[in-house]
């Protein structure tokens, strides 16, 4: 008998259908009838006959015709949404799909795998896992390590040894011994009580990264999770079933407890979960739709799933990768601006940078030389002012290797810390199979990634700060040979006047966001966790700073391409002309 899972006003209803010839309209009415029946106030409706509604797929949000037979319009166990006409959406309503649903309607299950061993994951790998490019499997070595650590836990339970988090309560209740008969209940209660985050849910890419990173840490074999449970977690990841994880609520010690608890809550079939097939729905329905069963937690497994710095670090991986990309792009954009402002290439001379050989500075100078006027890539614009009387350029042009360079070095420094962190065991207690014992420590503390990501925000912000000053030079006729605000008919058209204001606003906002969150600490858990990292906010604001940097540099790129139009028919170098052509393929010249 076909069955459909129907979303009505935030409620999920399983609706069986005995006759596949019944229509989409019947399914909508039956779902509303069940909704009214289950509500004390009838959901505010006198009867189903008074309800007007639309029916649409959760996957892609395509509207369905009421008259179409179910066997034609839908697949068995498909997820659909009934939208009541005239409904006002409440502030806490969870839509069936995340923002940017059009991106997920084309999701295709990956065929390639990444083998995780807990020791060799890269930031690039994790970002690709987040994008859904790969499934996960364990290496044989990782499987053996996981089995060995689980044997230690089984021994502790069998011998009724008192060990924190396994046979005791948590935090302030660490001295409370739990009876063996309640050890599984202890783990479920831990996950439920710690699922206390707030805010928007992580977008699918970030939740996928979070889940993948937790799997990688568990694969190290120091957490005590059973291989059976870990393989169930991997099956959930490979099916792209992603729990509802609010972005706020972690103080970054003892790890990212709240977000990781929400992650675990979905795995045990509670709370909300998302998949490309279902959209947001009750976790038990989403798992069932993919042929999966909720995980039944064994002793220590709840703690194994929620104790660590993976929220901070997974967001940190995205931040590092995006920062690396925009740092390279900043050199290209600045080179184009320098050409438009008729700057000199002398400041990028090899000998200048050889006597101050910071790696980032040397690399940036090399990129500028590769893009600007040379025997290999001559520039007609550069040739047009070769014999002008200008001796040197403003700092925003001349000092790009020194300013962009330290940003590159900052990114490299942070990437090293994040790479170490994503391959680290961050549980408490740690299970050492070689010693046959558990040891309590503090690897869950997020100070390392928190400090690093605060530093990343401060460093990358400088790309926007210097870019905004270059936009000013492009727009201000007293600082260039270009028309005011890069428009021929000034007054009639305002050109880039307000685009520059937007850049200035973003740079100013970044100045506040660059205040380090990790300088703050508030004691929690009745003073048992008396120093915390605040790394969750460090990671989220680092991403916001980087987003602003991307936007400011995009404005500069548009301004530079606008400016070069006033130097035509002269051409710049071949690489920069290709950049110009790429921009003009999507943005036309503003007259």
From TrEMBL:
Recorded coiled-coil stretches: none
GO cellular component terms, A-Z: cytoplasm
Catalytic activity from the UniProt record: L-histidine = trans-urocanate + NH4(+)
UniProt keyword terms in alphabetical order: Histidine metabolism, Lyase, Phosphoprotein
Pathway: Amino-acid degradation; L-histidine degradation into L-glutamate; N-formimidoyl-L-glutamate from L-histidine: step 1/3
Protein's UniProt name: Histidine ammonia-lyase
Recorded family membership: Belongs to the PAL/histidase family.
Molecular function GO terms recorded: histidine ammonia-lyase activity
EC class (word): lyase
GO BP terms: L-histidine catabolic process to glutamate and formamide; L-histidine catabolic process to glutamate and formate
NCBIfam families cross-referenced by the UniProt entry: hutH, PRK09367.1
Entry's EC annotation: 4.3.1.3
Native source species: Delphinapterus leucas
Highest taxon in the source lineage: Eukaryota
Pfam families: Lyase_aromatic
Taxonomic lineage of the native organism: Eukaryota, Metazoa, Chordata, Craniata, Vertebrata
């Amino acid at each position: 008998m076909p069955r459909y899972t129907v979303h009505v006003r935030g409620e999920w209803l399983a609706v069986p259908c005995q006759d596949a010839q019944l229509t989409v309209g019947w399914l909508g009415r039956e779902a509303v009838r069940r909704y009214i029946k289950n509500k004390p106030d009838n959901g505010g409706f006198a009867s189903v006959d008074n309800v007007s509604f639309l029916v649409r797929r959760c996957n892609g949000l395509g509207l369905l015709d009421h008259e179409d037979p179910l066997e034609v319009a839908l697949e068995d166990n498909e997820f659909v949404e009934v939208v009541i006409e005239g409904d006002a959406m409440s502030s806490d309503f969870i839509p069936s799909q995340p923002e940017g649903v059009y991106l997920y309607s084309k999701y295709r299950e990956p065929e390639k795998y990444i083998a995780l061993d807990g020791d060799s994951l890269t930031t690039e790998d994790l970002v690709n896992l987040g994008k859904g490019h790969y499934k996960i499997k364990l290496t044989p070595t990782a499987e053996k390590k996981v089995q060995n650590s689980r044997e230690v836990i089984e021994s502790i339970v069998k011998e009724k040894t008192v060990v924190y988090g396994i046979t005791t309560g948590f935090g302030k209740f660490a001295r409370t011994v739990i009876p063996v008969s309640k050890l599984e209940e202890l783990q479920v209660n831990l996950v439920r009580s710690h699922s206390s985050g707030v805010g928007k849910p992580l977008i699918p890419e970030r939740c996928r990264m979070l889940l993948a990173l937790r799997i990688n840490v568990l694969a190290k074999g120091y957490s005590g999770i059973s291989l059976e449970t870990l393989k169930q977690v991997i099956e959930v990841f490979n099916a792209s079933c992603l729990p509802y994880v609010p972005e706020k609520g972690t103080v970054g010690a003892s790890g990212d407890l709240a977000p990781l608890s929400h992650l675990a809550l979905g795995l045990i079939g509670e709370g909300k979960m998302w998949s490309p097939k279902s959209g947001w729905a009750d976790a038990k329905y989403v798992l069932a739709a993919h042929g999966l069963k909720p995980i039944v937690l064994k002793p220590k497994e709840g703690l194994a799933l929620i104790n660590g710095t993976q929220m901070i670090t997974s967001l940190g991986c995205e931040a590092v990768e995006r920062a690396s990309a925009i740092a390279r792009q900043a050199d290209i954009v600045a080179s184009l601006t320098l050409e438009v402002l008729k700057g000199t290439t002398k400041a990028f001379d090899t000998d200048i940078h050889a006597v101050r050989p910071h790696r980032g500075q040397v690399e940036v100078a090399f990129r500028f030389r590769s893009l600007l006027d040379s025997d290999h890539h001559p520039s007609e614009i550069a040739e047009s002012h070769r014999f002008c009387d200008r001796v040197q350029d403003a700092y925003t042009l001349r000092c790009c290797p020194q300013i962009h360079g330290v940003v590159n070095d900052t990114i490299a420094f942070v990437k090293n810390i994040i790479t170490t962190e994503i391959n680290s065991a961050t549980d408490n207690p740690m299970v050492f199979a070689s010693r046959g014992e558990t040891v309590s420590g503090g690897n869950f503390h997020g100070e390392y990634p928190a400090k690093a990501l605060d530093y990343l925000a401060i460093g990358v912000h400088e790309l926007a700060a210097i870019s905004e000053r270059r936009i000013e030079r492009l727009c201000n006729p007293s600082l260039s040979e270009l028309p005011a605000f890069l428009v021929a008919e000034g007054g009639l058209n305002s050109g880039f006047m307000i685009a520059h204001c937007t850049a200035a606003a973003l740079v100013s906002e970044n100045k506040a966001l660059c205040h380090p969150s990790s300088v703050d600490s508030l004691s929690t858990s009745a003073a048992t966790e008396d120093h915390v990292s605040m790394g969750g906010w460090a990671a989220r604001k680092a991403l916001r700073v980087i987003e602003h940097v991307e936007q400011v540099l995009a404005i500069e790129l548009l301004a530079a391409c606008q400016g070069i139009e006033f130097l035509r028919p002269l051409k710049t170098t071949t690489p920069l002309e290709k950049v110009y052509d790429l921009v003009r393929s999507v943005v036309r010249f503003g007259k």
